[in-house]
């Protein structure tokens, strides 16, 4: 019941401005451009590997270190584990691996359940905060604000992670870094991706992919991601996480959304612009389905501990 109430307080614009006069920030612009159809092949060719790595990030550190995390690891042969950080608790896990088949490094961030992510997003103490301009010097004076809880989580592992990526680039000689995650992990991935991109050789290609990504900052943050980073994120059907925190609180999605309109019909679309009304942003409040956060997305990929062999021994927070 509590979860239900907190979910309702989160639900966006429909309930807000006109009824309660609660217009706190101003809504950023939402795109109305038509979404374009994508085939399963389009989706798989760019999103399948990032999804599989984000799925591995839910398994225990021990099983990831030895690449023995059952189905999720078997789906990614030819991968060498390089480094991990976090403590599977307050500091969510991340790992760095060498994907030899793709000649790339992968940085994957662990996520959390829909219940936890919605409570983090609903926590009033996590308002928008200034982006750390010591860490991102070229953003000074741009008015960029991000979700303070996401930034605090990002800060806990940022330095060790960047050092690991730099060392791995030197050791392997690859020229590509793929940063990925689901849920909270997707939100952290956008910050990590930006941080890596600003601090490594510009000839290295950095891609950032998120699944079940909540809004992570204001319009200036969304513009920064669009202009300086480039994020692709997948919103699954009626996942409520994709539409929070609401735009009336000053949050805005970057562009790069791929929306799953209907998983069983393999109906996928690319959504031009920021907060496209034809995709998750236009979802009806009445159709919210919290299970859509976990999945399945495509190719029956779902995110959570349940796919890991030792899933029962780590904190069980699957919905
Ligand atoms: C593993 O990656 C190497 C390097 O790209 C490649 O030559 C080899 O065929 C791959 N092996 C498998 C089993 O995919
Ligand atoms: C901002 O980033 C710097 C490193 O660039 C770090 O030392 C500092 O702790 C960060 N500030 C906060 C509030 O996290
Ligand atoms: C909610 O989504 C799950 C899959 O994520 C699906 O199995 C279930 O049928 C959906 N519920 C409704 C009422 O559509």
UniProtKB/TrEMBL annotation:
<dbReference type="Pfam" id="PF01764">
    <property type="entry name" value="Lipase_3"/>
</dbReference>
<dbReference type="GO" id="GO:0006629">
    <property type="term" value="P:lipid metabolic process"/>
</dbReference>
<dbReference type="InterPro" id="IPR051218">
    <property type="entry name" value="Sec_MonoDiacylglyc_Lipase"/>
</dbReference>
<feature type="domain" description="Fungal lipase-type">
    <location>
        <begin position="106"/>
        <end position="247"/>
    </location>
</feature>
<dbReference type="InterPro" id="IPR002921">
    <property type="entry name" value="Fungal_lipase-type"/>
</dbReference>
<dbReference type="InterPro" id="IPR029058">
    <property type="entry name" value="AB_hydrolase_fold"/>
</dbReference>
<feature type="signal peptide">
    <location>
        <begin position="1"/>
        <end position="16"/>
    </location>
</feature>
<protein>
    <submittedName>
        <fullName>Alpha/beta-hydrolase</fullName>
    </submittedName>
</protein>
<keyword id="KW-1015">Disulfide bond</keyword>
<comment type="similarity">
    <text>Belongs to the AB hydrolase superfamily. Lipase family. Class 3 subfamily.</text>
</comment>
<keyword id="KW-0732">Signal</keyword>
